[in-house]
Design brief:
Elements lengths: L57 H6 L13 H18 L2 H17 L3 H17 L3 H17 L7 H16 L3 H20 L5 H20 L3 H19 L4 H16 L3 H18 L4 H15 L2 H4 L1
């Protein structure tokens, strides 16, 4: 099975305002290939990381860093730090990773010289996301761990959403590094703790969507280790949350429907896969999605596997 994760940066998916705290809700499509097949079930053109909503802004909001919050920053250092990080993100978006990394380091130096602990923590998190996006897994892991340590040292509870969000990213890193036991332990830990918070009566869209992130990430992990039927359960839960909060026509909802169709297809549940992909394709057509052709190609691949060439046409 070929498993390709393609990311499209800096697009909003879950529709939260800038106050939403998390940096890496990464719901991706699949580019799947059954080992016995020469043809691929392609989802590579489907939007993967639509949520990015100015990717690196998440932890800044959580820490209370804001361009408008300057009462303790008469020299405007924090403002300059934020602007430098924004330029780093902009250059990353343009593909100039060398310049982006230089600006991240400049922002970190400014924060360290001004002894701004909150800004330092935010920049570590931003640099960790940058390292993850550019495939520097060891560096990303180290920076995420440092960010977690700093948050805990500053009094953040270990079950706080900000720490659990980082834990999901660490689990994804472990997956990419082939550390499947550590990855699965991390996913389950995050899911159990977030579910416990929601079961206690907490009604919070951020926590709900972070749990959906965990369900999707764990579902993709299960696909990676060929546990397709188990993956269906977690994709269904992620899709349910996304529909409730974003609505049935949202682009991220379509990505999740596609993922569910992928898992059904890989499980040999072709009828269910057809239903999911028909649904995604129809919604994409009605909403004018630029990815409608990708959904129809996926649907066509299922029909081909079923031997239903008439429906392909």
């Amino acid at each position: 099975m070929t498993f390709r994760l393609i990311e499209r940066l800096f697009h909003r998916s879950f529709g939260f305002d800038a106050g939403y705290r998390y940096n890496a809700f990464r719901l991706r499509g699949f580019n799947l290939q059954k080992q016995a097949m020469a043809t691929k079930f392609q989802c590579g053109n489907i939007p993967q990381n639509l949520h990015r909503f100015a990717t690196y802004a998440g932890l800044m909001s959580y820490l209370g860093l804001s361009m408008n919050e300057t009462k303790d920053d008469e020299g405007g250092t924090r403002r300059r730090i934020e602007e430098t990080v924004k330029f780093a993100v902009f250059n990353h978006q343009k593909g100039d990773t060398d310049k982006a990394e230089q600006q991240f380091h400049l922002a970190l130096k400014m924060a360290q010289e001004s002894l701004d602990d909150q800004a330092i923590t935010y920049i570590y998190d931003a640099m960790a996301n940058f390292a993850l996006e550019t495939g520097q897994l060891d560096k990303a892991e180290k920076l995420f761990l440092e960010t977690t340590k700093r948050l805990i040292q500053n009094g953040t509870p270990t079950d706080d959403d900000s720490i659990l969000e980082i834990s999901v990213k660490l689990a994804e890193i472990f997956t990419m590094k082939g550390k499947t036991d550590e990855a699965e332990t991390g996913f389950i830990y995050c899911i159990e703790n977030l579910q416990k918070k929601l079961d206690s009566g907490i009604i919070d869209d951020n926590t709900t969507m972070l749990l959906a992130m965990c369900h999707d990430s764990y579902g993709r992990f299960l696909m990676e280790v060929n546990r397709f039927k188990e993956a269906i359960k977690y994709f269904e839960q992620a899709l349910d949350a996304c529909r409730r909060i974003n609505g049935p026509m949202h682009p991220q909802t379509l990505v999740l429907i596609n993922n569910l169709g992928s898992a059904s297809y890989m499980s040999g549940e072709y009828s269910a896969a057809v239903d999911h992909l028909k649904n995604a394709a129809n919604i994409a057509r009605v909403t004018g999605s630029s990815d409608v052709s990708a959904y129809y190609r996926n649907l066509g691949m299922i029909y081909m596997e079923m031997g239903d060439r008439k429906s392909v046409v």
